[in-house]
DUF2971 domain-containing protein
Amino acid sequence: MYRQNPNITLPENPDTIIWKYLDLSKFLDLLLYQKMFMSRSDKFEDQYEGTFSEPTFEDIKKIAENNPKFLHYYKSHRENVVISSWHANEYESFAMWQIFTKNNEGLAIQSTIGRLKEALALEKHFEQYIGEVHYIDYKKEYIPFDDAFFPFLFKRKSFQYEKEIRIISDVTSQKLSINDGLKINVDINKLIETIYIHPKSENWYKKLVTELVAKLGFDFKIEKSDLESDILI
């Protein structure tokens, strides 16, 4: 279920458009099991996930001198936080297609922040928080640590192109042993507004996706990306 945290910032407009770019196998897994995968925070490629900027770390080290458990908590906490990443953008992103779809058979889910909140209502075991990521200079800027979620809502400026909106869940209290991540229940019909097919895909691929979606009992709007449409000249 979605919980609001007053310390976490999020665009106020519930109609803010968000995207998730993924390959067909992950998409079918989402539809078949109606569960969203959330990755363990320390399994992301970016080794800085869930860590602190240099100015913040200096403060933490001072506190940890008399309280070693303080620093250990932040290191171990990364293993208990899971994340689902979304891209906030009014339009499709050429960069996102390139990065998150490995071939011409990927697709993109278009949703909104409002839809995302509603879709998460099905999950009764894990609480989810939604927040926007802030991009800072990790050598100069400070990350506050008065909220346990803050380390997961900041990234280096090199990742600004991601315009990331995150679903974050802390499962520490569940005392689970998480490998790569976990799956949470979602209302698929509320989550997905439109499905966009990879701009470089063939017509047969759109037909295949359309038929698969229908056989699984869904009737989402399915569009071919127009990033590769014919030029008008």
Q: What stands out?
A: The chain has a mean pLDDT of 91. The radius of gyration is 19 Å.
